[in-house]
């Protein structure tokens, strides 16, 4: 497919990775936000709903023809689609990382991100509590720095991972984030609120990334005008 010239000119060094997103409405809304922000591309891992399913198309409102979408990827293939020096950041909402951290710390919340639900299953492990306990003890869970969504995470090309609302993000996404020097992005919400919708969280993070890039460009322009 070819894409509008104006869209290509405004593409940003921000890439979106959808991890096991199964709801067509959510995926379509996320694609619409990705197109609006100017994402360079969107990657869909295996387990996501088909991007070209009718309900996704309807919710996307034309986004499919504004941003490149790559479907049905194995995690082993994902790095092939990332620009050099890309850092991967996960928005872990009720996923594997959150649950293991809760077991280790015995806390119900983490810097204001409250999640009362347990994932129905993990991508690799079915016996949740046993594996979470062993994860903490054996150290196979990647250690990712938790940072606020409005901290500066766009210094290098960035890829944001959004997980499905049932299972959260996968272990593979956490491993990729660790290997690229990325981290976990936290959107604080008030206690008592279960979680954010995946599409809402994706929109907040993508537009925050765009804001950071715009501010950096303005600073560089201002600094250059002084010389």
UniProtKB/TrEMBL annotation:
<dbReference type="GO" id="GO:0032259">
    <property type="term" value="P:methylation"/>
</dbReference>
<dbReference type="InterPro" id="IPR001537">
    <property type="entry name" value="SpoU_MeTrfase"/>
</dbReference>
<feature type="domain" description="tRNA/rRNA methyltransferase SpoU type">
    <location>
        <begin position="123"/>
        <end position="207"/>
    </location>
</feature>
<dbReference type="GO" id="GO:0008173">
    <property type="term" value="F:RNA methyltransferase activity"/>
</dbReference>
<dbReference type="Pfam" id="PF00588">
    <property type="entry name" value="SpoU_methylase"/>
</dbReference>
<dbReference type="InterPro" id="IPR029028">
    <property type="entry name" value="Alpha/beta_knot_MTases"/>
</dbReference>
<protein>
    <submittedName>
        <fullName>rRNA methyltransferase 3, mitochondrial isoform X3</fullName>
    </submittedName>
</protein>
<feature type="domain" description="tRNA/rRNA methyltransferase SpoU type">
    <location>
        <begin position="14"/>
        <end position="93"/>
    </location>
</feature>
<dbReference type="InterPro" id="IPR029026">
    <property type="entry name" value="tRNA_m1G_MTases_N"/>
</dbReference>
<dbReference type="GO" id="GO:0006396">
    <property type="term" value="P:RNA processing"/>
</dbReference>
<keyword id="KW-0808">Transferase</keyword>
<dbReference type="InterPro" id="IPR051259">
    <property type="entry name" value="rRNA_Methyltransferase"/>
</dbReference>
<keyword id="KW-0489">Methyltransferase</keyword>
<dbReference type="GO" id="GO:0003723">
    <property type="term" value="F:RNA binding"/>
</dbReference>
